[in-house]
Amino acid sequence: MTTDDIVRRRAWEQDGFFIARGLIRPQRARELSDACDHVLQQVRAASSAQGHLGTHVSDLLAPEYFVEQPEARMRLADYMSSREVVTIIHDLGRAGEGLLNVRDAQYFHEPSTRDYDGAWHRDGDGAAPPVDAVPSRPTLLRFRVAFAHDDHLEYVPGSHARPDTPEERSVLKGAVRNTKLASGPVRIELQPGDACVFNTWGIHRARYRRDRIRRTLDLLFGFGPRKPVVFGARLWLATLT
């Protein structure tokens, strides 16, 4: 285990996230970015609104996006299970959870109509067990790679491994969920080629700004038996070994 591995593991356990600087070389980043932009251009062109009202493209590997460029889809799929990715996240699950596998892929971009701050949340909190059961939750992580400067994500360090504070509970369950938190969120800043890995159960949010180009690939991973993932019309059995 290298020094970088030790530092990342310590940050993962203590804070719930870590950053891998310069993980992707420029040429590889351009290839992946081009594949993602190929999808984004189609989504925006098909939108009935002026521009594209969303902040991310879901179902990124749907076959219908790659009729003209099937090799671009394979490039993305190959990257998701590459040694480059798997090496730094394969052991982040807890004992007994099983093997790493991919669950979803999406592409974040800037909005076209308005600026706003997102709501604080824990991924999946709508169907979550009581907050005092945090340690028993299965490990899910997001692996994000920036193709352009991205400082939109805020994360509350350590919140992945503890119950909500009274203030956090009030915000997470309240009518106004994008207010400031006193529990010390940090803004995660990525340069092109950087990757961020974070535990999805940690409290986080993003901000959305029209004048700030955002191009970030987001991959969702879990641990356990092989999971069938539907990308468009095709069922992809995503097993990483």
Description:
By secondary structure, the protein is α+β, with helices and mostly antiparallel strands. The protein has one domain (3-232): Jelly Rolls. Helices cover 24% and strands 27% of the residues. It has helices spanning 3-15, 26-46, 70-80, 83-89, 166-172, and strands at residues 17-20, 56-57, 100-109, 116-117, 140-146, 150-155, 186-190, 195-199, 204-208, 215-223, 227-231, 234-238. Strands 1-8-5-10-3-2 form a 6-stranded antiparallel β-sheet. A 4-stranded antiparallel β-sheet has the order 4-9-6-7, with no helix packed on it. α2 crosses α3 (70-80). The radius of gyration is 18 Å and the shape is globular. Mean pLDDT is 88; it is low at 230-241.
Per CATH, the superfamily is q2cbj1_9rhob like domain
**Mind summarizing the main beta sheet?**
6 strands, antiparallel
CATH-defined architecture: Sandwich
Radius of gyration using CA atoms only: 18 Å
Low-pLDDT segments, ≥5 res: 230-241
Strand order of the largest sheet: 1-8-5-10-3-2
Q: Please state the average pLDDT score.
A: 88
- Stated plainly, the CATH topology is called Jelly Rolls
Number of helices: 5
